[in-house]
Amino acid sequence: MRELINRFFGPKGVSSKDAAKSRLKFLLVHDHVDLTPAQLEAMKAEILEVIARYVEVDVTGVDVHLQRDEGSVALVSNIPVRRVNNRAGATA
Amino acid sequence: MSECIVITSGKGGVGKTTTSANLGVALATSGHRVVVVDADIGLRNLDVILGLENRIVYDLVHVVEGECRLKQAVIKDKRCDNLFLLPAAQTRDKNAVSPEQMRDLVEQLKEEFDYVLVDCPAGIEQGFKNSIAGADKAIVVTTPEVSAIRDADRIIGLVEAAELPEPRLVINRFRQKMVDRGEMMDKDDVLEILAIPLVGIVPDHEDVIKTSNMGMPAAYDQESVVGEAYRRIARRLQGEPDVPYIALEEQGFWGNIKKWMGFSNRRAI
Q: Cα(A77)–Cα(A62) distance, rounded to whole angstroms?
């Protein structure tokens, strides 16, 4: 009920609470692995470089980020493949 | 059996000293012999919160350096015969004491008192290391804000690295009205992020300023909602199971409707 009321009368867009929570989660993940956003970008570029030797990657759709789940941190990546690069002779 | 509890937070200004003073009062008035130790050497404040600033002769550093006996430095509270303060030195810095010296000091205090509460300074340096040196347990104080929670997370990691048991969390300056509007993280949001057990929630209330003006912690005031919050934390610390969380005034539009309709305007959080 409260949520319904808030939906009609509440603030528009993302509440500041949700903003706080998502900023915190991002901050803590980086604090825990002791990796700066710049280092993460560098790592992402290197990973892509390796993958691109075997398959053709859709660079615009790449998503690599750290995710915190119940105390442990995971590197989650979603790398869309356009097509297998036959020249390298590898399988995707 | 005596125990030493350190009250810490990482970030400054979130209410460590207020929490230390109020828990000291709440534990002492429920019959335990309690000493609160101000470990913020160079920036002492616990004496002021307790209204004991005029009674200080010797301090923690004098004891450690052997200039006085421990009994000479410990000050009895004005209102409660069970509550004592060991003040910090004001003119020295954190390096005047070592973790080993703090450990020895706490051991001596534990022979005399049921609870030794150590008010830790902000930061993660020497003052923090000294404060946790003799502690058996830790309480982490935070507010529902990004910076305070980030620092609390860091402190929790350091407490666990020091091989203390999992710390317990106090959420201070909680505003139910803002939570209801989606403008403040709720207790579940904070607990989801910090993932340690909760020991209490203290509402953001003008009593805190008023009682610090007077040098009389809110836990002495039976009418104060802040005092009640701290008394309940003290009960949980003593191992009382299932102490309910304090009912906060439900404010704003929805609360007023309920008030008009004659429903209770208080609810558990």
A: 8
